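Q: What would this complex look like in 3D?
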Amino acid sequence: MVKRIVTGAHYGLRDWLVQRLSAVVMLVFTVVAGLRIVAAEPGYEGWSGVFEPDWMRVALFVFLLSVLYHAWIGVRDIYMDYIQPVSIRLTLHTLTVLALVAYAGWVFELVWSH
Amino acid sequence: MRFSVYRYNPDVDAKPYMQEYDIPLDPTDKMLLDALIRLKSHDDTLAFRRSCREGVCGSDAMNINGRNGLACITTVAELGDHVTLRPIPGLPVIRDLIVDMTQFFRAYHSVKPFVINNDPAPETERLQSPEDRLELDGLYECILCACCSTSCPSFWWNPDKFLGPAALLQSYRFIADSRDQATNERLDDLEDPYKLFRCHSIMNCVDVCPKGLNPTRAIGKIKDIMIKRMV
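A: Here is my prediction, written as structure tokens for the whole assembly.
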């Protein structure tokens, strides 16, 4: 195979933008959830009540998607700097995506299965 | 004055080493470049680049006490008694303080650093309004000394793919030029996870630029235009 330096995968702007917008979503959710938790009655009933309203469930879902995509871009950026062999990087990409999907499943299990 | 200077001659040395010098300076040796020329009169095996000796040609960029700068516009007085000199980091060393700039200029050439205009050439110049011309201030002054790109960790990691602050500043210089007609092609070329978006705005480039330019702002403006084009 020729040793050509290849660049030009057209997802630079999209990922950069999504990383910033997802950061805003996470910040807003953290503040809102934080305030609600502080305001809630201490204990299981109060704290689970924080995530009870439908709008809060939707917000949590959007927050979760933001965390996953944000983490994906951030971790991939680290691989881009430190892991140069394509085969190892692709393997790590796959493992990272699987881990993130597993985390998503775990959150669903924790929050929505009860 | 005491100097620790990075020495490496690949024909002779197995690996680089730091050489200590203790030499008296003349009262006329005001700039670090004067001191280096004095040093070379004591040890003529020392190799470094210099040309204009007034901060215009960008030849004598080096790492001075851990910070990139031009020897010719750095005063000896500001350096203290002991000066450590190394080549600018991240590029292959040819000898002593001289580095191979091929990678740096490859990035520079890749942004097509010239006005692209397909209209027939006018009788006189292609005119700009004073406002349009003002856009180029802070961009055209770059002397390509590579102080910025070689102080950028993203450039250290991916010098073959990330263009680096100097080339990106020049890219924006032509995107911002009202006479240029290739904005779309230029933006298409930068729409890539490496070339532009390896920049994480840590602003080492701004910190070291001997001409006081701001590549981070130029990179931000390229991103702004890309977003404007996308939405």
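A: To summarize the key features: The domain at 102-230 of chain B is CATH 1.10.1060.10 (Fumarate Reductase Iron-sulfur Protein; Chain B, domain 2). The interface with chain A takes residues 153-154, 157-158, 160-161, 189-198, 200, 223, 226-227, 230 of chain B (CB under 8 Å).
Q: Very helpful, thank you.
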